Amino acid sequence: MTKSKSTTTPPASLASTSAPVPQERDSASLPQTMRAWTHHLAGVPSTVLSLSPSLPLPNLPSPTSVLVRISHASLAPGGSIMMQLCPSIFRTKPCIPELDFSGIIVEIGTNVPEARGMRVGMRVFGSVLVPAQLKGAGALAEYVAVEAEGVVGLPVLRSGGGEGEMGMAKAAALGVSGATALVLMEEAQKKGLKAGMK
């Protein structure tokens, strides 16, 4: 397998700067295109979503981003609300919906801090930032390019004397939805709520 080092310019819809982002991509193992659920108009998901069979594989939008091959995406009420209420003029078309996902890192930007511990092949979960989603990047695709700060390794679960990594399906729901649940639990603890209280 030959690694080819290339300098590419991300599409304007995903670029945070106009400067090319140097990146190493194993061109032999990554496809040029991907499938993704997309929409061009605002509306109910069942009426506006369609499967796009060959969108270009996303480039890294910045040197601090990663490319993740998505294993699972989480469907959340917020994704449906964004599809219905956000006017089309504010979205890049085609728009890929949803924010939360799990998957495997297949490419790492040149300036991802080593302290993040990211590596190709790492199993992660994360979220697409809303501004990036409005610019076309979303989780209902085979691949997503996101800032490295938006992904973390799968948690290790400890129970019954054993330990193991959380599964990809469960981890996909930990992003926005998981953070919302955590904040609500912290607020409940502050208010002195206990199990069984109504």
TrEMBL record:
Instruction: Identify the stretch(es) annotated as Disordered.
Output: 1-28
Could you say which residues form the signal peptide? none
The name on file for this protein is Alcohol dehydrogenase-like N-terminal domain-containing protein
Q: In what residue span(s) does the Alcohol dehydrogenase-like N-terminal domain sit?
A: 63-155
Membrane-crossing ranges are none
Q: Where is the composition biased (Low complexity)?
A: 1-20
InterPro entries this protein is in? ADH-like_N, GroES-like_sf, Lipid_raft_assoc_Zn_ADH
